[in-house]
Amino acid sequence: MPPMRVRVSVRLFSLLLLGLPLSGPAAAQPAGSTLSIPSIAAPQTRDRVRLNQRVFDRVWSEVRRGYYDPTLHGVDWNAARAQFRPQALAATDERGLYRVINEMLDLLDDGHAAASPPAAVRRQEAQFARRAVMGLTLMRGETPDDWTVERIRPGSPAEEAGVQLGWALNSVDGQAWGPDVETFDGRPVHLVLTDETGQRRETTLTPRIMDAVQPFTADTSRPGVLVLRVEQFDRGLGPWMGSELEGLPADVDVVLDLRGNPGGRLWEAESVLSCFLPRNQAWATRTGRSGRAVVLRAAGDCGDRPDPLANGVAVLVDQGSRSAAELTPAALQEARRGIVVGEKTGGSVLIAQETNLPDGGKLTLSRADFVTSGGTRLEKRGVTPDIAAPRTVAQRRAGDDPTLEAAIAALQAEDRARASTPASGL
User: Fold this and answer.
1) Which of 78, 34, 51, 7 is nearest to 267 (CA)?
2) Residue 124 neighbours by CB under 8 Å, 6+ apart
3) Termini Cα distance of the chain
4) Are 120 and 179 in contact (CB under 8 A)?
5) pLDDT tens for residues 117-153?
6) Do residues 29 and 376 touch, judged by C-beta distance below 8 A?
7) In the chain, % of residues over pLDDT 70
């Protein structure tokens, strides 16, 4: 069985790095995709029709028999098939096919329900490998063609070209960007963007090979604070975090930076929580299609730690924090084990699995509902931070981080309060 994931559909609001040789689930993925010239619509062929049919029918059938809500939120799935199947069969390329399929999946009103074309799957599989990159991270808006520059990698072609955070990406080589687009090392691509004033900006970038962005990083540059940045809940996160926390002095606070994190593996989220919560403490309940409820407990792999960490903890979140990056701060918040700082999260928290499709694509589908140990359903609701500390585009361009500074200040205040409280004794 594929690993359970609490991942937001990149189709809805996810992050995507332009620079991978090929990566990413759903309509857009985190990390560097390498942009290439989108394919021009080819004439319809018999093979294309057959492949479209196989892919569409697999998606439709999988939703009907495997979606966590047997009522499909009241959607008439037979009517959906009648409406969208002819459009899918008529698609002349991968982009057209997956747009139709994702439009049908949108009927479920579920940010996890998404179909990723083969190119996006390849990008996702290579996202933490050495690859040719543009150096842009994009955030998707409300439509498949609405993308904004969320991050720029230092030393990348994008930085050298002067592309700025907050600019909208309008087109790539004359067409809207899509998850089916690929780019290659040394092959220039022409980007048209719009800046924050509405001015048109054009540039030609050439992807080049750069070392991979690490999925997890530790920053010890601030005295008395360990900042653990998690790009996504990928394999190996629990043991890595356990090793970073091993031997940590009691007077060092921990900040988990989950901003822009789209989620990932449920097991890794459980491992992270096992670093901070008592062994076997319940932190959530998941309920599948059958209606059977399963209590999730802090029993993951946090390295060799026998006991949870006692140090002060803060978690940074924003609107780009999704799925596992929402359930983790929610669990720490409910257990009063961590301060949540930043912006309200996206509210996309269901437990999903991926299914391989006949053309090499993948279907991400919610297989279980999720509520916190306190009975809160985070789907469509999100996590409200204890301390609101948003970070503007201007602050990010300047390198300022008021969210992190607010978290450190809150942890220091807690430390002072603990130090001033006299110990009880007999």
Assistant:
1) 7
2) 23, 24, 25, 29, 31, 116
3) 55
4) yes
5) 998 888 777 777 788 888 988 887 878 788 899 999 9
6) no
7) 88
